[in-house]
C-alpha cells in the first residue's frame, strides 16, 4: 500500500491532484503544517477508529480533538484508536501517513464538519513525508465519506 496506492487512486479518480513529497517528515500535524506553510487546522488528520468490531476512518482538521460523547452518538458505540499495527493492517498506511485514499481494504470514511472551515485541506498521502491539497467537499466525494460532527467545539476553552 502506501504512497504508491494513493498515487494509483488519484491517477484513476482525480488525475489533476498531485501527491506532494517532502525530504523531511510530515508525520505530525505540526511538522506537516510547517513543511507546507499552512495553519495546523488546515492539515486533515485521519483517525483510525474501532467501534465494536467495526473499523472506520474519521478525517478532521488538524487542531481538532475527538469528542467522545459526539462520536459515541454518531457511531453507535465507544470509539477507540487502533494500535499502530492495526492501522497498517487495516489501512495499508503507516501511522503519520494514514489517509482515506488507496486503502488496503474498503473502510467507511467520515469527514468531520470542522474541515469545512477551509477552502483547501492537506491530508497525508500514504507515507510519513507526503500530502496533497484538496477541497474538503472533494475529499468527501472521492472517498464516499459521510459528514459528521464528532469533534470538540474549538471555541470552547
| Series of H and E elements | HEHEEHEHEEEHE
> What oligomeric assembly is this protein in?
single chain
CATH architecture type? Alpha-Beta Complex
What would the principal axes of the Cα set say about the shape?
globular
Low-confidence stretches: none
Proportion of residues in β-strands: 15-25%
Separate helix tally: 5
In CATH, the homologous superfamily goes by the name YbaK/aminoacyl-tRNA synthetase-associated domain
Specify Rg, calculated over alpha carbons: 14 Å
CATH topology: YbaK protein
Q: What's this model, at a glance?
A:
With 157 residues, this protein is an alpha/beta fold. The chain has one domain: Alpha-Beta Complex (YbaK protein).
Write the layout of secondary structure elements.
Blueprint: H1 3-13, E1 20-21, H2 29-36, E2 43-51, E3 54-61, H3 68-75, E4 79-81, H4 84-91, E5 109-112, E6 122-123, E7 130-131, H5 136-143, E8 146-148
Parallel strand pairs: 2-6, 3-5, 5-8
Antiparallel strand pairs: 1-7, 2-3, 2-4
What would your notes on this structure say?
It is a single chain. With 157 residues, the chain is an alpha/beta fold. The protein has one domain (3-148): YbaK/aminoacyl-tRNA synthetase-associated domain (YbaK protein). It has helices at residues 3-13, 29-36, 68-75, 84-91, 136-143, and strands at 20-21, 43-51, 54-61, 79-81, 109-112, 122-123, 130-131, 146-148. Strands 2, 3, 4, 5, 6 and 8 form a 6-stranded mixed beta sheet that branches. It is globular. 41% of the residues are buried. The mean pLDDT is 96.
Amino acid at each position: 500500500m502506501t504512497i504508491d496506492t494513493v498515487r494509483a487512486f488519484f491517477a484513476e479518480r482525480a488525475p489533476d491532484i498531485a501527491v506532494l513529497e517532502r525530504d523531511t517528515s510530515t508525520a505530525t500535524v505540526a511538522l506537516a503544517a510547517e513543511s507546507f506553510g499552512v495553519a495546523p487546522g488546515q492539515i486533515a488528520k485521519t483517525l483510525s477508529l474501532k467501534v465494536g468490531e467495526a473499523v472506520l476512518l474519521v478525517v478532521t482538521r488538524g487542531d481538532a480533538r475527538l469528542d467522545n460523547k459526539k462520536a459515541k452518538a454518531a457511531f453507535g458505540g465507544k470509539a477507540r484508536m487502533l494500535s499502530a499495527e492495526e492501522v497498517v493492517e487495516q489501512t495499508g498506511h503507516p501511522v503519520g501517513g494514514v489517509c482515506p485514499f488507496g486503502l488496503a481494504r474498503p473502510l467507511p470514511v467520515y469527514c468531520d464538519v470542522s474541515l469545512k472551515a477551509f477552502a483547501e485541506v492537506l491530508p497525508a498521502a500514504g507515507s510519513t513525508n507526503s500530502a496533497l491539497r484538496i477541497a474538503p467537499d472533494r475529499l468527501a466525494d472521492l472517498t464516499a465519506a459521510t459528514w459528521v460532527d464528532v469533534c470538540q467545539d474549538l471555541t470552547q476553552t
